[in-house]
Amino acid sequence: MTTARPLSILLVDDHRDGADTLDMLLRLRGYETRVVYTPSAALAAAVEKMPDVLISDIGMPQLDGCELAQRIARLTGATPLMIAVTGYSQFRERCRLAGFDHFFLKPADPAEIVAALEAHAEKLESPEAERPQARSAEFASAH
Question: What is the CATH number of the domain that holds 14?
């Protein structure tokens, strides 16, 4: 990781084993992660401290990841980098419309997620970097 200050990441997935594994891998790379297993816990965590990055499963009970992302984006003017990680390829367009910056199909390659995080960290560190208020038209995806 190249940042002076580690990115703070909120990771939400109702599949505990997958969430815990990705959490462990990101922590080993030096990121500050907070893992939660429900969308309501993710909303509470974002209210407490808005993360630099949201990594979210999409197909969750009660509130899906797209609605979660939209609610988090409405909390403040600064929207975190948003990464969708899902087992459903048919959600790609829906995720783009919900404001996700990246879309990965499970099982996602952790190296690709880390590459997206490092690119975001570099943008934040550049002197002319300004946190975007609105989502860019670009929607990166893998697989």
Answer: 3.40.50.2300
- Give the distance, in angstroms, between the CA of residue 41 and the centroid of all CA atoms in the same chain: 15
Please state the pTM of the whole predicted model: 0.86
Asked whether residue 139 is assigned to any structural domain, the reply reads no
Beta strand ranges found along the chain (DSSP E): 8-12, 32-36, 53-56, 81-86, 102-105, 140-141
In a domain, 131, yes or no: no
Evaluate the omega torsion of the peptide bond into residue 110 and state whether it is cis, within 30 degrees of 0.
no
What are the mean pLDDT values of the chain's consecutive 10-residue runs (143 residues total)?
73 96 95 96 95 96 93 85 95 95 94 94 73 46 50
Beta carbons of 54 and 10 less than 8 angstroms apart: yes
Structural contact between residues 47 and 76, judged by C-beta atoms closer than 8 angstroms: no
Whole-angstrom distance, CA of residue 50 vs CA of residue 41? 13
In a domain, residue 2? The reply is: no
The DSSP code for 105 is E
How many domains does one find in the chain? 1
Tell me, yes or no, whether 18 lies in a domain. Answer: yes
Domain of 59? Answer: 8-124
